[in-house]
Design goal:
Elements (H helix, E strand, L loop, with lengths): L20 H5 L1 H22 L3 H7 L5 H29 L4 H20 L3 H29 L5 H9 L1 H20 L2 H20 L3 H5 L5 H10 L24 H8 L13 H4 L13 H9 L2 H19 L4 H9 L3 H12 L2 H15 L1 H20 L4 H16 L2 H14 L5 H29 L3 H23 L5 H10 L2
Helix pairs in contact: 2-6, 2-7, 2-8, 2-9, 3-4, 4-6, 4-22, 5-6, 5-9, 6-22, 7-18, 7-21, 8-9, 8-17, 15-21, 15-22, 15-23, 17-20, 18-19, 18-20, 18-21, 19-20, 19-21, 19-23, 21-22, 22-23
């Protein structure tokens, strides 16, 4: 091709254009489906945890609390072990949809296995499979959003999807108890299978951006055009996430990469040959590097390492109090399991909004600013949790601490999206796979650390809260020094030197 042709590219007639192509590939629908997947993942997780101890007792097992702890560990183990191959294969074959669907099938099977398991080892196997399905949501789902949306709105879209985390917990805890009483052990699982099946149907409808491009539809360009029509939208100057070049209806960012073999390059002529214009997906021809090379590149990037360490710290902070909160509430205020569940719900409700708000702010102020603000604002509430003056104060402090800590997830994921652009050959699935491993390790260590502190120290609950304060300070330091193309400490130092 010499670039002189003006003929538009239309799909060949041998295949029909998918129905609902625009809305099925749109950024809004993809974000909704990924958010639904996150909600389902946390809902299923929270549905089964409260009822497993009763089933173990029914099966005649002793030392139930320890056995439940190992089942929680099995979930994290499945998540961590499965993440590297899922991330590598998703990037290697440039496909999100197939693993996205297979993960949901595995989740349905895991719930049925756990519901009917006659022995403990089968329960543990089901939990491992559930961890594997969870890794698909967090690796492939987040990568799918980054594939679809313009870079300048990644923070907001990720924040919206991650709002499903607290939403799943809010639904799961009370529904589990409500279904267990009248329907027994199978009741919560049947509800979980129904929700998971509906989630699977939504995933079937998703059309990846690379497939939509073959039909002259670019969801990223559509969202960009809508954003540009909003005059009040401020230009993001501090997020350090580069803006994509303008896209027209014939050639999108990913199409340019597919033609040239490298991100950011532009070919002048439109696609027009039959080989280029058919309904087959437009695959980006990116450099293929080994898994070891990906690991080396991530470990040599100070920004990437800072995010992964912060995610690990977040996992520890998020889960370290879980084993101790019911015991602490019972010993101080005499609450039973039902009232403890209500405290959890009251504390989790505000976090539904924190991810979306943090993502929106990240697109405008940058990943470092919002991360530092959230971490610093969480510190006083950790301290107030130590006090035993009133239950109302505890609930408020718990809710606000959870609100600000949860607000760090959106900027963390957006920072990884920015890091990906600077590492040739490293894709979104790679970095979110590493994100998943870091969180899995943190969430596995957190309950163990928290449980040991509470059981073996005279002021165990105070020790857990002080641990949260210390980890928040460490995370703030890492963000301040390493996040962004120009870290905050460099910005502050530069401004101080100015007259």
């Amino acid at each position: 091709m010499d670039g002189t042709h003006s003929k538009r590219c239309f799909p060949v007639n041998q295949s029909r254009k998918p129905w609902g192509l625009k809305w099925r590939s749109s950024a809004a629908f993809v974000t909704f489906v990924v958010g639904l997947g996150v909600t389902t993942d946390l809902l299923v997780y929270s549905l089964i945890v409260p009822v497993i101890p009763f089933q173990l007792e029914h099966l005649g097992y002793q030392g139930v609390s320890g056995l439940v702890g190992w089942l929680l560990f099995a979930y994290s183990a499945g998540l961590v072990i499965s993440t590297p191959p899922i991330a590598f294969l998703s990037e290697r074959y440039n496909n999100r949809r197939i693993p996205f669907l297979l993960g949901q099938i595995a989740l349905i099977g895991a719930q049925i296995m756990l519901m009917e398991a006659p022995t403990y080892w089968m329960m543990a196997l089901a939990r491992i499979i559930q961890g594997i399905s969870s890794s698909v949501v967090w690796v492939v789902g987040l990568a799918l959003i980054c594939d679809t949306v313009p870079e300048r709105t990644i923070g907001r879209q990720l924040g919206l999807a991650l709002s499903g985390m607290p939403l799943g917990l809010i639904i799961g805890y009370p529904v589990s108890g409500a279904l267990y009483e009248p329907f027994g052990f199978r009741g919560p699982f049947i509800f979980g299978v129904i929700v998971t099946s509906l989630d699977f149907l939504c995933r079937l409808l998703v059309i990846e951006r690379k497939e939509a491009l073959a039909w002259d539809v670019d969801p990223a360009a559509q969202l960009s055009s809508r954003e540009e029509k909003r005059p009040e939208r401020a230009t993001n100057t501090t997020s350090n996430i580069p803006l994509p070049p303008p896209a027209d209806s014939n050639t999108s960012d990913q199409a340019r990469e597919a033609i040239s073999g490298r991100p950011g390059s532009v070919r002048s002529e439109p696609l027009q040959d039959a080989a280029d214009c058919g309904p087959s997906p437009v695959a980006a021809i990116t450099p293929r590097i080994s898994l070891w090379s990906v690991v080396v590149k991530l470990l040599t990037s100070s920004r990437a390492v800072a995010v992964f360490v912060n995610v690990l710290l977040y996992g520890v902070m998020y889960t370290s109090a879980e084993p101790a909160i019911p015991l602490h509430l019972q010993s101080v205020w005499g609450l039973d399991s039902a009232k403890v569940g209500l405290v959890y719900v009251a504390a989790v409700i505000p976090t539904v909004f924190s991810s979306a708000l943090a993502g929106w702010w990240t697109d405008r102020k940058g990943t470092a600013v919002i991360s530092v603000v959230c971490l610093i604002l969480s510190l006083p509430w950790w301290g107030l949790l130590i006090l035993q003056r009133s239950l109302a104060l505890f609930v408020v402090a718990f809710a606000l601490q959870s609100f600000f800590i949860s607000g760090t997830v959106a900027p963390f994921t957006a920072e990884l999206a920015a890091v990906t652009k600077a590492l040739e050959g490293v894709g979104y699935a790679h970095v979110y796979g590493a994100f998943n491993i870091a969180f899995g390790l943190g969430s596995a260590l957190g309950p163990i650390i928290g449980g040991q502190l509470y059981d073996h120290l005279l002021q165990g609950w105070m020790a857990i809260c002080l641990l949260g304060i210390g980890l928040s300070v460490l995370a703030t330091f890492l963000v301040f020094c390493l996040f962004g193309d120009e870290p905050l400490h460099s910005v502050v130092r530069h401004r101080v030197r100015l007259p």
